[in-house]
């Protein structure tokens, strides 16, 4: 088995945590029980690009229990939990000397070159016994990087020429272009074959879903996609309650500052912003929200937060968190105006929310790494201001996974049960999903929620026939129209 992880000797520790997580992931365990016999994913070769955490380990082993072959990479250079990666490679029945699990290509602290190499490793499978090249036939994506690579690779092969790294507009794009150039030298039809093999992709997060709808609008989307993010039991739970847990976890592990009494700014009041603001308020911070959307701004105001612009509150903010999924939300000029030792972090998917390139190239700025994923950046004194510093978390990449361990198992069980159902839908019913972007039907969304009620001691009220008829729904659901917003 080929794989690349930090240290297989961590497998026992990983397995112990996976066992604890399984108890907290009733949705995934119900999938295993329900589909153990019918093996709906038999024949699926899933390329997974999603944070390689303990919770993801339970997802991977669920996909395997349903018959799939799987190869996995992380979708972020800092988010891998090395003990989880080791345990998945070793597998429940293997040993570090004789690993029998799933090929994982992920470790905490990858370089960008390593990251994109790992992404290729999950799409290109080892040759079969006849020496014929093998490829993934399903993608499970978080943020869309695996999907992006297949689309770029196919584009390149159609044009017969790889994009010139000199034309890249960012350091990361340069790395991608270089990887594509190297790939074209090895084979001229590899990505054509991968694109043909892929039956579909299931996408985990808001930012990846934006990319999919963009490709669909442009007419460039190559295969069907299920937007898992917009299952209610994903975005209204993981994005909100997950961040409510993992945002302050990240700040605490990174800095251990007392949050109570501090002024915290949350940029963006979507699902992630709502959970983030609540988590900071729960610690006693005075929370200020920034928004560009009047509806979300009004929601924030009615939830009791001050709503302002970042520029207006820079001089009082102790903690600044971006949660927009947008670019250039905090500029380097704004960083120069922050309080001494203000904490700056991003919980959105990509690192372009904070102008890290501008910070790195700012004249005279000095970076000191306090510990992995915690950097103090000191700005030189100017005529107006003495030398001052800011504390940047996870180099501007999602800090709840870089500085802490992401969302806890129970909430991820909801997200990942949607992922499993979406993989089954696309793999087993290709005729029902022509190329396009879909969400799971509402009865499956309600089913995911239902699977998590018992564990919390929830007693659900059952509709009478008369009540159901009065509301115009079936006793067994679905209970809401597709327009309902929860
Ligand atoms: P969303 O679309 O619900 O919310 C984003 C909000 O930001 C919107 O209300 C939008 O109006 C606002 N916004 C956009 N530009 C802005 C600006 N310049 N200033 C202030 N506000 C602005 O998206 P959601 O689901 O909250 O996701 C946000 C990001 O977090 C995405 O990148 C998503 O992929 C990521 N995410 C991260 C997770 C994590 O564990 N770290 C979990 C789930 C999602």
TrEMBL record:
It catalyses: S-adenosyl-L-homocysteine + H2O = L-homocysteine + adenosine. The keyword NAD applies. The keyword Signal does not apply. Its cofactor is NAD(+). Binds 1 NAD(+) per subunit. Pathway: Amino-acid biosynthesis; L-homocysteine biosynthesis; L-homocysteine from S-adenosyl-L-homocysteine: step 1/1. NAD(+) binds at residues 205-207, 239, 268-273, 291, 326, 347-349, 400. Residues 239-406 form the S-adenosyl-L-homocysteine hydrolase NAD binding domain. Keywords: Cytoplasm, Hydrolase, NAD, One-carbon metabolism. It is found in: Cytoplasm. Its EC number is 3.13.2.1. Signal peptide: none annotated. Substrate binds at residues 53, 142, 204, 234, 238. It comes from the Bacteria. InterPro entries: Adenosylhomocyst_ase-like_sf, Adenosylhomocysteinase-like, Ado_hCys_hydrolase_NAD-bd, NAD(P)-bd_dom_sf, S-Ado-L-homoCys_hydrolase_CS. Belongs to the adenosylhomocysteinase family. May play a key role in the regulation of the intracellular concentration of adenosylhomocysteine. This is Adenosylhomocysteinase. It comes from Nocardioides fonticola.
